[in-house]
Each structure stands twice: as C-alpha cells, then as structure tokens.
Amino acid sequence: MVQLSLRWLRLAVGNLLLVIAVLVFAKAFFPYKPFLQGLAQHADYHNNGETPAPAQFEKIVFMLVDALRSDFVFGEPSGFEYTQSLIRSGVAIPFTAHATSPTITMPKLKALTTGSIPGFLDLILNFAESDTTSTLATQDNWLAQIKQSGKKLIMFGDDTWLKLFPGIFERTDGTVSFFVSDFTEVDNNVTRHVAPELKQPDWDAMILHYLGLDHIGHKTGPRSQHMIPKQHEMDGIVKQVYRAIETEEHLKNTLFVLVGDHGMNDGGGHGGSSAGETSAALVFMSPKLKALESKYSAPAVPKDEFTFYRRIEQSDVAPTLTTLLGLPIPKNNLGLFIQDFLPLWDEDDQVKILNTNGRELSRLISASYSDFDRLLDEGKCNGKTGQLDTLACAWHSAVLSSVPSEQMKLFSKFASECQEILTSAATNYDTDSMLIAVTTGTLALAIFATTWTVDGIPGSGFYKFLFWALSLSYSGMMMASSYVEEEQQYWYWAASGWGIILLIRELQRGESGSKSIVILILLRLTRRWNQTGQKHAGASDITTSFLSNNPTILWILVFFSYTDMFFRLKRNLETKHSLAVGPVMSISPVVASMLFKLSMAALDTRELIPAFMMELADGFATISVVTQAQLVFSIIFLIGVYLVVVQNSGISGVKVSPIRKLQPFHDLLTIFVATQSRLTNIPLIWFFNVMLLLLDDMKFDSVLQIVLTIVTMQHVSFFALGNSNAISSVDLSNAYNGVSGFNVGVVGILTFLSNWAGPVLWTSGGVGLMCSWMGRKRREQEAQGKNSDDNQPPSTEGTLTDTYLKFAEMTSTFRAVAMVAVMGACMVLRMHLFVWTVFSPKYLFAMTWTGVHHIIVDLGITATLHYMGGR
C-alpha cells in the first residue's frame, strides 16, 4: 500500500512539475516586446519649427478583407473586376504586402496600424476573444493620431478592432471573428452600414473589416465555389465606396485603401509563412492618384508565386498613411514610406518626408543601441565598417548633401538599413526563466524515470529498448527545423516499423500474420490520405486527387463507415434482457450524424455530393445545421447517461464485463469524432477502428506493448487527418458545430476535439486494449491460483489501479522527454532564422499535446474510463 501511494504521489508531482515547466517556458519564450510610450508629435521629427509636408487627403476609408490573398484581387480568375478596372485607369495603385509570420489577424492589424512587428504571443491572444491585455490604447498608431488631431472614427466588422482600440470610435458594430460557419451574415452586418455612413459628413476615418472570405477559406479552401461570388460581393463594396468618393462633396478628398491582413494557403488556413499566407493584396484608390500617371495592367501575371506588382512590407502602410494624411509617423514604426506616392509633393517636401521617416527610425536605433547616439554626435564618417558606423555615416552624408535627389537617395538607403537592423533584432528572451523551465522539466522526467529503475516496468528488454529509442530519437528531431516541419514522416516510418515487429511476433507465435499485414496496408492508405507538412504541401493525395473527383466512392466509404459504427454500437448496447435497446438507440446518433454531414456538404462543399444525392442533401440542408449538430450531441449525451445510470450501474440487473462496459462509450466517441471531422476523413475513422479490432485480437503480452502502439498511433492519426506543426493547419471548420454564437469555452473544446480527433480516439481504444489485457491477466491468475498449493499473496499485476498507473507512468515519461526536447531546442535555437515560423509554432503544439491531450485526455479521461470499466 505504501508503494502504491508513492507511485500516485510521484505521478502527480511529476506531471505538476511538467505543467509548471511548460507555462514558465512559454512566459519566457513569448514575452511582450517593449515599445515607446505615448503619441508622436510633428516636433519630434522637425527641428527649429520646420513645417511637415502637407497632407494630401483629409479622410480615409480603410476596407480590410480578411485573408485577401494577392491573387484574389490581381490574378485571373478574380471577382474584383471593378477594382482591376481602377488599376488599369491609374486611379488605383496596387501592391503585394508581405505579412510576416504569424499570419493571424490581431498581429497583422498591429503591423498595419503601428508599423511595428508584433510578438508571437499575439497569436495566442488572437484566439482569446475576451482578452484585453493586447490593447493598443497606450501604443502609437495612425488611428490614435487621427483621434488626437480632433477627428472622428467609425468602425464596422471584426470586433478585434474594438479590443485593440478601446474608446477610439464614435460609432461601431462589432462582429465576432471566429464564427467561421457564417459566410453571409457576418458581412451583411458590415455592409448595411456602408450606404448610410457614406452620406454622413461627421466622420474622418471609416474602418470596414469583412470576414466572410476568410471563413470560406477555413471551411472550403481558396478554390471553393463560394470564393468568386464572395469576391464579386467585396468588389461591389469597392465600387460603392469609390463612386461615393467621386460624387459626394464631403468625400472628394478621401483616400480609399483596400487591404488584406494576410493570405491563405492551399488548404484555406493561415498562420504560417508559406507564400500564399504571407502575400496580401493592397490597393490605394483615389481620383487624385491619377496625377501619378501610373501604368498597370490588370489582371496581372505574378513575378513569382503570389507576388504581383511591387512587394512591400506590411509595416510600410503605417508611415505611408500618416504622411498622406499629414499626421506624425507612429513612434514604434519600422516601416518605410512607399515612394510611389512621392510625386504628389514637390521636391523639397519629398526630401522632408524621407528625412522624417529616417529620423523616426533613427530614434528606435538609438533606443536599441546606445553607441549610435555617440556616432551621430561625431558629425562625420569615421571610416569604420561596423554596422552602426556605416549607418551613422549614411545619415551624415544625407544631412550634409545639398543635392535633393542625392539626399532622397541617401535618406532612403539609411531608412532601409535601419529597417533591416530593427526587424532582424532578436527578441529580449528571459533566458534565466527558460533555463529554470528546462531544469524543472528535466526534474519531472527524472521522477518518471524512477518508474523504470525503482519499480520496474514489466515487459521484455527489447520492448523497453524500443520505448526509449522511440522517445530519444523523437526528441533528437526537435533540433532540426526540417524534421519539425516534416514530423509526420517520422511517425509514419515508426508505425510501419512497429507493424513489421508485430508481424514477426505473429509469425513467431505460429500465426499467419494476416492481422499485421492488414494493419500495414491500412497504414499505407492512412499516410497517403492527406498530404501534410511543408515540403509536399499541396501535393496529390487520396483526398484531393481521388475522393474529391469521385464523390460517389467517397459516400460509399462514408456509408460503410457509419454502418460499421451502427453495428458496433448495436452489438455493445444489446443485452439478453434488452435486445430492443441496441437497434433503437444505435440507429439514432448514426443517422443524425450522417445527415448532418450531408447537410454541411450541401452548404459548403457541394462538389463532394454526387448528383443523385443532391436533392436529398438540399432537402435536409433546409433544417438548421446548428440544430442538427445539437441533435447529434444530445443523442450521444443521452445514450451516455443511459449507460452510466442504467446499464453499467447494475440497475438493469445484468452483470456486464469491463470491456462491455467501456466499448459503447468508445462507439459513441467514434460517432462524435466523425461528426467533428471533415467529411473526407470519416473513412479514416473506420480504418482506425479496424486496426484497433485487429490489435485487440493480437493479445498483447504487456501494457508496454499497448503504450508503444497507442503513442505511435496517436501521432500517426494526428498527421493523417491533415494536421501539421504549422498554425495554418489548425482546422476551424468544425469548431462551431452546434454553436449558434461565439463561446470561447465551447469553441475551444470543439476546436481541440476536431484537430486531435485521431489521438483522442486512439486513447479511448487504448483503454479497451488494456481492459482486454486485464481480463486475460485475471483469468491467468485465477488459473494459477487453482493449480497452486502455496498461500502466496495475489499479484497486483493486471489490477485496475496497477494497469492505469503503468499506462500513466509510461505516457508521462514519453511526454516529458518530448517536452524537454522541444524546450531545449527552442532555447538553443532562439536565434535561428526559423524560430518564429517553425520552432515557436511547434512549442504551441507541444503545449497542447502536454497540457491538454496528456493531462486531460491521457490521464484524466483514461482514469475515468478505467474506473467505469472496473467498478
């Protein structure tokens, strides 16, 4: 009993230390970047009462279309036909704006409004709708500059603006940005304000943030049938606003900006650093721009992937807008004035604009590098070639030059070099806390390792070697960015290797090996189902190249998958005293789930529905899909209550074995997971259950073999369902099933269950494998007891508590090894070129694997199921 108590204490302390390490490291690795407080004044950049360059515009309409990738506006095909006509006529100046990673809305809004480069922690805050710590209330930006000048601002659309700029708008109508099932109302709520507000003369800046195009991308991808109609809709708003500027007297001096906060990848997601995600459209429009005599063709051919016209940095928007509006450049701006607009001013003012931009950037250099002020005070070039020496020399040369064209060239060079230095500067990491976190995680690992050295893990030395080889080789991968990006390949090969070991085991036991061969075949299909990672992203796979082109075959597979779910649940619900229960209770969740997926396909992915099913699909799609999803979840919940209260509690008077108690819960989870998965992934759920059935029939010898199987297949299923270590792979398409409005808790749970559906299913399946193993162990012990004459105390091996502890100790060991490796890699490689595009996202995924999947699913839910099955 004392030893058992020590094992529980060790498990609790070790996991507590692991969670503490994860949180401490996150705080040290994702710090807020420091910034200069207050708002800039013209006097900050102009000496001796020098006047700034005059404003070219008095008002601004800033229309942001979420996920407006460059080719959506500039390429062909495109629904932005009117916008392209403005480009051809010379009144619209187009650019491709480069959005640095993370390509998520909140960080990109900060970049567009402040000219700075936000920290990676903003990615996390982007998903916290109630968060207020990310406000820009105390940070300089062009909206605050407009407000400071006594002008009025209004905003309609994504309520992220209200969180970033509290109290700055006179009139607002915010819309929750994460309700991705809505393609229309979320935009109609913005558009209904446009016409009346264009008639009102009492505002100076109008912000419009449209979300529908981004939602379409998340649900159905950039090539969706909904995409071009949505582009036509957005182009119609452009036409409405521009014509009002042409005709309304109070708008004649208005600048109209159409911009995307980021793009999207081939899957419709964003957050990473692929060309599609980082390339956003940017168009400046006004009749006054005709004076620039710009000549552009539209649609255009990209210079390289997604780069149309000239490529600028997204941070360049802030200094350009403030200069065009005659306002001071924000204090923390790292952007460069877009020189295409310089001809709007005379030569003296052009010099003044570039001088101002350079002076603003030099203040940031001085704040970061104290030696720079000393070099500037020298007043001359010192002949040295250091980075700061060269920069100071460029400034002196520009100031001393008397030729305007030469001055502009030198000021521009100085500003570009400042931008390069400032944007490449490392984050101020808290390395002491990072080291403490790694040490704490290592201590947790040492505590778990005592399981292997003190208590001993039952199992042959070969399988123990495999466990540590798997854990340590996986941890070694974390030091290489390419391995992190293509992590799925490691798990696919590990699973294939494990399958071959199981085949050899079968043959050694005198069996045919057919079960292992079937598993290997299913693994091969599984790894080709969804192409993921970075290197082969967008390459052909079963989903895109076969199922999407053969919807009839897809639905045959879906039908067989649901049929299998029905028969499994029916068989496990039936008892000799309630034969009618199985068919009645099992048919309802299966049919409800399948019809819900059919209705969702009719609304979002009609190309996946065969012609002969279209009428049926449209008929069911008339019923609210929110109501349909709620019905599915309600039925699953009620059956679960029945299992707990009636069948498994003993009220029914029928004694049910542990495995029969647990199996219906796994069957219900399968239906829920199918509901939360993409339609094309439902056959994979079927494959996983077939594998579990075959694995159970193999009669594993120890919990260690089960843990090796479950850990490997958890990761295989995660990647096979289309996930990767890129933020852009996070699937929100099923995060709002059954949800009529945004609720951070419910949506967060559904998002996790949608993306970790495979690992959760394999954890549940692992409980079933362990219950079967326990049953065999008990029967063996009973048989040994009958044949034994001694009075030895009964073995604890195979008991409920012992089995759970072994599972928890081994999975905790693996997770600690993995987490310490990820923390160590992020710390050592914090200066790496890909720290924000590869290692930071990996850390966020590792946090989820540890803090959510391991703690809640592997430990919490497994304990609950063990208890329910064993009592």
UniProtKB/TrEMBL annotation:
Answer yes or no on keyword Endoplasmic reticulum: yes
GO terms (molecular function) for this protein are: CP2 mannose-ethanolamine phosphotransferase activity
Protein keywords: Endoplasmic reticulum, Glycoprotein, GPI-anchor biosynthesis, Membrane, Transferase, Transmembrane, Transmembrane helix
Q: List the CDD domains.
A: GPI_EPT_2
- Keyword Glycoprotein among UniProt keywords: yes
Q: In which pathway does it act?
A: Glycolipid biosynthesis; glycosylphosphatidylinositol-anchor biosynthesis
Residues annotated as transmembrane: 578-600, 620-645, 665-688, 703-722, 734-753, 816-839, 851-869
GO CC, one annotated term: endoplasmic reticulum membrane
Q: Report the principal subcellular site.
A: endoplasmic reticulum
* Gene Ontology biological process terms from the UniProt entry: GPI anchor biosynthetic process
Location comes to: Endoplasmic reticulum membrane
Q: Where is the GPI ethanolamine phosphate transferase 2 C-terminal domain?
A: 426-869
Domain of life, per UniProt, equals Eukaryota
Q: How does it sit in the membrane?
A: Multi-pass membrane protein
Q: Which InterPro entries match?
A: Alkaline_phosphatase_core_sf (IPR017850), Phosphodiest/P_Trfase (IPR002591), PIG-G_N (IPR037674), PIGG/GPI7 (IPR039527), PIGG/GPI7_C (IPR045687)
Write down the PANTHER family for this protein, in alphabetical order: GPI ETHANOLAMINE PHOSPHATE TRANSFERASE 2, PHOSPHATIDYLINOSITOL GLYCAN-RELATED
Q: Which family does it belong to?
A: Belongs to the PIGG/PIGN/PIGO family. PIGG subfamily.
Described purpose of this protein according to its UniProt entry = Ethanolamine phosphate transferase involved in glycosylphosphatidylinositol-anchor biosynthesis. Transfers ethanolamine phosphate to the GPI second mannose.
Q: What is this protein called?
A: GPI ethanolamine phosphate transferase 2
What gene makes this protein? LAS21
